[in-house]
Recover the amino acids of this structure.
């Protein structure tokens, strides 16, 4: 008889089917008749966030009341692994007074996982100060934290600490003299002035626990929490080599134990909390594997190897224009290379299809029906696709350092356009025929990027750092 090597994953699948099978999307995907993970992957399609919201989240209509919080979140399954990684860096100490700077999430059970982890670390004797936003009077808030005498500070992003140090104009330990440790979940490569030990807080998502802090280098990496959340990996390759940007929904996923060292993947998440094969937008690179035979606290041994990963920023999105799809990596490279040494320095840039660059004369017919819709000709006709014609130009929003002269937008526009013609023969051909129009460059108000970053910091939720040049959908 074949040995069962993934009992925890099978239990998570069973919980998903039990909770979601009688929901509207569960009936649509036929969850009740599924018997294995292979059936689940074959019956439920990959869903990007927009499709998942429409086809799953908005149609669930369930409470999951028949299952307890532990069965929904599996929080205790890998809690001991989280605590072991923390204790290895704490040297036996137990922080009992913790200031938690974290906005509440949409799922209260996930918020509870974070608090219960800290309670377990302190032996159930933690005193918690919860700060849900930094938008109020900052001086009063800092005095409140100082009066609490925290031993540990838990933040969503290490950039939060760097920003607080900028406000205080000193390292954190000088203002909070009892502070001994910092726990952070995102942006762990951010530089801070403080010399306090920084601990990896683990990786939580609305679907459940995604990553555990690792006890091996890199310390900012994660061990995929496949026993807590049903995780699949979607290969997307190197965005610099992809012709049309990152992976497409038609690609097949692989299971974590089949990952290739050094490759990039997008995480696909499923859980009883209402997630069915969601393309999460979370991207990782596999940097190692945990040894086999990891003991499970609630049953047989899980003998499958589990990947250790490092987080990656999302690859640039592809931009669909009328007649051609432009790879996001090529767009970001074109904008960066458009700046010469004598130009003002680039602070940030955002690239998107120009919503105003629509050809209003590209109508299929007076009635709105295309007689060629079922032919090869119809497949390429403007307006035959759902949503009508696509934009015919790019919009590039730039913020530069210092004062920009009036001619800078035109110069950047010409350089980006020339570079895109070299990179994409299809784009160049359409530009020669005037089917596509030259990009539109807008200079943003100085401080826009800093203000956007500060809003993310004050919101106390998720990562703060973003690529300097971004492509938005």
């Amino acid at each position: 008889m074949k040995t069962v090597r993934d009992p925890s994953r099978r239990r998570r699948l069973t919980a998903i089917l039990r909770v979601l099978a009688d929901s509207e999307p569960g009936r649509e995907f036929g969850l009740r008749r599924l018997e294995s993970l292979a059936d689940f992957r074959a019956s439920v399609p990959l869903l990007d966030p927009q499709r998942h919201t429409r086809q799953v989240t908005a149609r669930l209509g369930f409470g999951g009341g028949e299952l307890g919080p532990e069965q929904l979140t599996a929080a205790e399954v890998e809690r001991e692994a989280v605590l072991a990684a923390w204790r290895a860096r704490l040297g036996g100490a137990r922080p009992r007074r913790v200031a938690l700077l974290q906005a509440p999430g949409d799922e209260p059970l996930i918020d509870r996982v974070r608090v219960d982890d800290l309670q377990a670390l302190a032996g159930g004797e933690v005193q918690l100060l919860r700060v849900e936003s930094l938008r109020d009077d900052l001086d009063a808030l800092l005095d409140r934290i100082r009066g609490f005498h925290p031993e540990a500070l838990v933040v969503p992003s290490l950039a939060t600490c760097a920003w607080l140090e900028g406000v205080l104009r000193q390292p954190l330990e000088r203002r909070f003299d009892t502070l001994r440790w910092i726990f952070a979940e995102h942006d762990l490569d951010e530089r801070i002035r403080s010399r306090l030990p920084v601990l990896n807080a683990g990786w939580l998502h609305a679907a459940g626990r995604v990553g555990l802090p690792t006890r091996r280098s890199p310390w900012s990496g994660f061990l995929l929490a496949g026993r807590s959340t049903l995780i699949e990996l979607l290969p997307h390759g190197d965005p610099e080599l992809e012709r049309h940007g990152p992976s497409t929904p038609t690609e097949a996923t692989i299971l974590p134990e089949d990952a290739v060292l050094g490759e990039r993947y997008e995480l696909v998440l499923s859980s009883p909390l209402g997630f069915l094969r969601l393309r999460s937008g979370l991207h990782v690179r596999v940097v190692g594997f945990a040894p086999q035979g990891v003991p499970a606290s609630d049953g047989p041994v899980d003998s499958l190897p589990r990947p250790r990963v490092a987080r990656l920023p999302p690859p640039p999105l592809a931009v669909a224009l009328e007649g051609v799809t432009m790879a996001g990596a090529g767009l970001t490279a074109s904008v960066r290379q458009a700046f010469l040494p004598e130009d003002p320095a680039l602070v940030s840039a955002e690239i998107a299809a120009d919503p105003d660059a629509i050809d209003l004369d590209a109508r299929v017919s007076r009635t709105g029906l295309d007689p060629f819709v079922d032919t090869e000709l119809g497949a390429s006709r403007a307006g035959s696709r759902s949503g009508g014609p696509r934009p015919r130009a790019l919009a590039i929003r730039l913020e530069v350092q210092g004062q920009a002269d009036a001619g800078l937008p035109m110069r950047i526009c010409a350089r980006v356009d020339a570079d895109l013609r070299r990179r994409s023969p299809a784009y160049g051909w359409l530009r020669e025929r005037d089917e596509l129009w030259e990009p539109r460059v807008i200079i943003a108000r100085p401080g826009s990027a800093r203000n956007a970053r500060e809003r993310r910091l004050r919101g106390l939720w998720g990562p703060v750092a973003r690529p300097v040049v971004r492509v938005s959908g």
About this structure: Confidence is low (pLDDT under 50) at residues 243-250, 363-369, 381-385. The chain has three domains: 7-73+225-312, 79-203, 319-357+392-471.
